[in-house]
Amino acid sequence: MRMVLGLVLHSSHQARMLEASGTLRGVQLELVVYEQEREIRPKVEALLKRARLDGILLGRVPYDACRDLLPADLPFSINRYTALELTLTLGRALRQGWAPAPVSIDTFDRSVVDDVTTALGIEPEHVTCLPYDAETSYDRIVDFHERFLSEHPDGFVITVRSEVTRALGDKARMLNVVPLESSVRAEVHELVLRIRSQRATELSFAAGIFSVIDFEKDSNLDRARVGLLNMLLNTPEFADAWVDTRAAAAWPCWRPGRCSTRSPATGPRCRCSARPRRRSGSAWRRASGSGPRRACASCWPRRRLRTPSRPVHRAAS
Q1: Please, are residues 283 and 304 in contact by the beta-carbon 8 Å criterion?
Q2: Strand partners of residue 127
Q3: Of 2, 86, 261, 272, which has the fewest beta carbons less than 10 angstroms from its beta carbon?
Q4: Taking the CB of residue 4, how many other CB atoms lie within 10 A of it?
Q5: Are residues 52 and 122 in the same domain?
Q6: Do 294 and 286 form a contact (C-beta atoms < 8 A)?
Q7: DSSP string over 169-200
């Protein structure tokens, strides 16, 4: 079955993202390409109406822009920028002849920035970071970078947000973070494997038969059966299972008063105290659905009698 995967990306990353997804087989990509972040929500809404998606891959900004539009059962993956992308961006600054600090960074997690700057030996006071927050407006991000540049005129800005690039691109030295093909490829393949695993789980089927055994003679079989049913229904592993209860079957005995079968709930097992006479056909037949238990030919019922509890005895012919 062909898989349909949605991909939400910025126009500047389109070629790189498509190259990273080129190794997939049996997957149809539905693209949502945006120039400005305000375009994300209407384009994702249009995608959900025209295509039936099996999953969607998007960044943190697109996810927060359209998270309420995504169906609850739709698998998704959020592409996050890692320490490797930040390190390579700082390397690009060195290649252009810029000092790696002072620098102002937005959107990256504080822990990622601390790990990279510590590994490169950059003084913490020369690095400012504004972690990602869905409630943070563009104006606040721009104001954060402008205050940094006013204090460090020789510094530069690393950003992930296209709106910030548009606002400060002509006023300061700035670098945009570029996603790596290997990171995108790993995210896409992980999402595809997760979808296929979910499909396999939904198609799997298992059946089990539970019976009430080892109960006292004076106990109520119907009550015990109801207790077993409630226990299965309240077990988390059986949350999506179909549990059915069936009445017990009565198995006639060939020798009344001498069969030690306690209850039909123990299954069609003949435990007569005396060996019956040999009749036509095999003297012993395997009881249907009872595993290794056997019933003698004389006690084998010609039909099941739907009675609730005690065995039904009949006189030997």
Answers
A1: no
A2: 103
A3: 2
A4: 14
A5: no
A6: yes
A7: TTTS-EEE----HHHHHHHHHHHHHHHHHHHH
The one-letter amino acid code at 285 reads R
Number of domains in the chain: 2
Q: Buried (b) or exposed (e) across 29-67, using 16+ Cβ within 10 A?
A: bbebebeebeebbebbeebbeeeebbbbbbbebbbbbbe
Mean pLDDT by 10 residues, the chain (317 residues): 83 78 78 87 91 88 89 87 90 91 91 92 90 88 92 91 84 86 83 83 70 66 78 77 63 45 43 42 41 44 42 45
In a domain, residue 163? The reply is yes
Q: Where are the alpha helices (DSSP H) in the chain?
A: 14-20, 40-50, 60-66, 83-95, 110-120, 138-151, 162-168, 181-203, 221-233
Decide: residue 148, CB within 10 A, 0-12 exposed, 13-18 middle, 19+ buried.
buried
Separation between Cα atoms, residue 186 and residue 77, nearest integer Å? 11
If asked whether residues 97 and 139 sit together in one domain, one would say yes
What distances in angstroms separate CA 231 from CA 18, 29, 239, 243, 299, one per listed residue? 51, 45, 11, 11, 34
CA pair distance 311, 249, nearest whole angstrom: 9
Range of the domain at 185: 3-80+181-203
- Please give the single-letter amino acid code of residue 200: A
Residue pointed to by tokens 């500047």? 12
Same domain, yes or no, for 20 and 59? Answer: yes
Domain boundary pick from 139, 168, 203:
203
Structural tokens at position 163: 């709106």
- How many whole angstroms separate alpha carbon 262 and alpha carbon 213? 10
